[in-house]
Amino acid sequence: MRIRSVHDGDEARLAVLLGQLGYPSTEQDVGRRLEYWLNDPQSALLAAADDDDRLIGVAALHVTPILEVTGRFGRLVALVVDETARGRGVGRALVAAIEGRARAAGCLFMEVTSGGHRHAAHLFYEGLGYRDTRDRSRRFLRPLT
User: Fold this and answer.
1) CATH class for the region spanning 2-127
2) Is pLDDT of 118 > 90?
3) CB neighbours of 58 closer than 8 A, spacing ≥ 6?
4) Fewer C-beta within 10 Å: the chain N or C terminus?
């Protein structure tokens, strides 16, 4: 396995992985998303690829400046490992690579959100040293479309 940047040509495998994460997507959908992700200087899409360069995992980072203190924070926007590759360190390797990118961008900390039903993911993040802070803050959403 090696970690590399996602690039044009990864649309089909990325669509499969997003489907496994619970977000069914077509190759076309993913192609449109890559147009803005790959051109955003504050974002990074990293992939874990097998020996045949087939994507077996992907992680998305977005870097956000902080107003109330000097610095930025990194947000792990998405993380998915192929069902057939789970439990082999792929997720850990992707998170480590994303955290490295975030540090290089001057991030002070990382943030990740995870659906309440994803208990295995919660244990995974806690095992990596992430703390559940829902007792300190809440997340509010409002659709704009």
Assistant:
1) alpha beta
2) no
3) 6, 14, 17, 45, 46, 47, 48, 78, 79, 80, 94
4) C
